[in-house]
């Protein structure tokens, strides 16, 4: 079983600060690798989810790319089965596709998150992934 | 000393195919993580340089982000001293800034390369980094 401590020891990019907004359940961490700006339009983050942690359903107006670097977790688009994520997996998320991502119950997850076409606006945050939805994966 | 074999064992993303174009010196490898497309505009690659390998001087009309994941190498912008790269380093390259990147003489280098604003066009490839320039770093 991976724990967040195990993940941290193996990880390349810093874990950053604990995410304290209401769009996440469980404990997750964020390090800004590239801030948003008006030239590259491509803010890039290192995100670490402790076991069981995940974000709410949400959409990105410009899309997103996830590059999984550690642990094990899930990515799910609305109306589709969840995809299990492992290190080396790449997820491309089209604009305005409702989705969530996060750790497995028994493993942390670390991924790089690249916000594509960031000039099109911020993520639209929606309802949480309920414990029932999550436990039924 | 890192060797490309050592790098490969530690690396998260595949090494891909050997780069055979004339814009690289030495041996380098490329794996497409996200292909270019007309929606995300953000092709993303895993690039592995064997010791001594580097690319020519070049410019990206839309800019580029490098996320260093293994080994040791260099990034240099024209007219500036070379920056030594280590795992966890992030390089943001503004549009049309002339630069090169590659491995150290005694270590391989692996980085993720994100082409930002790819709708603005392909890289403009220029002259090689000469052995004299490289050996004087």
UniProtKB/TrEMBL annotation, chains A, B:
Q: Which organism is it from?
A: Methanosphaerula palustris (strain ATCC BAA-1556 / DSM 19958 / E1-9c)
- Spell out the protein name for this chain: Cupin 2 conserved barrel domain protein
Top-level taxon in the UniProt lineage: Archaea
Under the heading Pfam families, the entry gives:
Cupin_2
Q: By its UniProt entry, which InterPro entries does this protein fall under?
A: Cupin_2, HNL-like_cupin, RmlC-like_jellyroll, RmlC_Cupin_sf
Q: What is the lineage of its organism?
A: Archaea, Methanobacteriati, Methanobacteriota, Stenosarchaea group, Methanomicrobia
Q: Show where the Cupin type-2 domain sits.
A: 47-104
